[in-house]
Fold:
Amino acid sequence: MTNKPLRIIHTSDWHLGQHFMGKSREEEHRAFLDWLRSYIIQSKADVLVVAGDIFDTGTPPSYARTLYNDFIVSLQNTGCAMTVILGGNHDSAATLNEARELLACLNTRVIGSITPVFKDHVLVLKDADGHAGAILCAIPFIRPRDLVMSLAGQSGQDKKQVLVEGIAAFYKGVFEAACDVRDELGCDIPLPIIATGHLTIVGGKSSESVREIYIGSLDAFPATKFPLADYIALGHLHKGQTLKGADHIRYSGSPIPLSFDEGKHAKQILQVDFDEGELKKIEAVPIPCFRTLACLEGNLEQIETGIKELPQPACGRSLWLEVAVVTDDYLTDLGTRIQAMIDAREEKNPIELLRIRRCRKTGDSDLATAAKEKLEELKPIDVFLRRLGQEEMNDPEKDELAALFKEILGQVEQGEP
Structure:
């Protein structure tokens, strides 16, 4: 058998159905999916790989499911021979698997969660003419409970090590199964092997909207534990990035900014080309900005200057603004003052003030100072850590309690019993 050139589009972290400060992202997601379909046609891509977090929650709103299903149907006339959907930590495997058999009839493979059979995660990627171009180790987000069982007496470090080794062993098993499939195909030149993943890699740069996924047990997975795949398509971190010293390990990042601190980052998909049994080229393709998010920080005078200099909103949609006011004073009319600054702009472009935060000059973190803040300005972990800071106990005890709290918080956020 002769292998053929193969072009893959790598994307992730769509988070369809996200509500941002009470605002729907439907318009931006619809615009992105329309753009992505057009780019797939333009680039003559053979395969689309979505590396997790298709939806923002395990029970996405109906419009988000409609966007997802309509997009997959729309790919049938694009020349894209195959779509691979991987589950992420925000996704419910049950929700993704609901339409798995139906979507298989539309050249789409859905892998919502891991199975104990390694070969279940091995896919042969082909072009529109049915020629094989690569082997895919299709690995979704790996939940700790799918691999290991916590044992009494294990330290936090013990749990981390057990989980690291469990994930590494799973990747090794799937990779070996992929090598067996490659040998069975008997191509003139051995097919390249690609792996996917939805996790944080040591050295990866996170953002405000990224949830810790191995809460209480594993902060990040060492890249050295991956098998020797030709390309590794990752999801979870929302900033597109390359792992230092490993150009073939890539995060595509999210297609739209999912938090204010992501507003300043350009968004991308990755176009990955294979030929003659090896990786030939990785190209970062910029995604148009469908909504401008801006964050201003400083005292009131600096905020006023910043508001005057805000850019023209993208795509005719209103600019969403977050303001962080640096002050030790508790000002009850902050919202009124800042809105007046917006209304006084000479350019009457639509700006929506979504959030005001206070940043103290002194950095004092006691609860008395924190009491001046509004509850919506704080995250649950912030409140817990401030309260924990008042207790007289050693650092290891505090670390253990913080880890347990994060574990409970993660189960609540992910809807686990």
Observations:
- The chain has eleven helices and 17 strands.
- The CA atoms of residues 316 and 406 lie 40 Å apart.
- The domain at 6-286 is CATH 3.60.21.10 (Purple Acid Phosphatase; chain A, domain 2).
- The first strand starts at residue 6 and ends at 11.
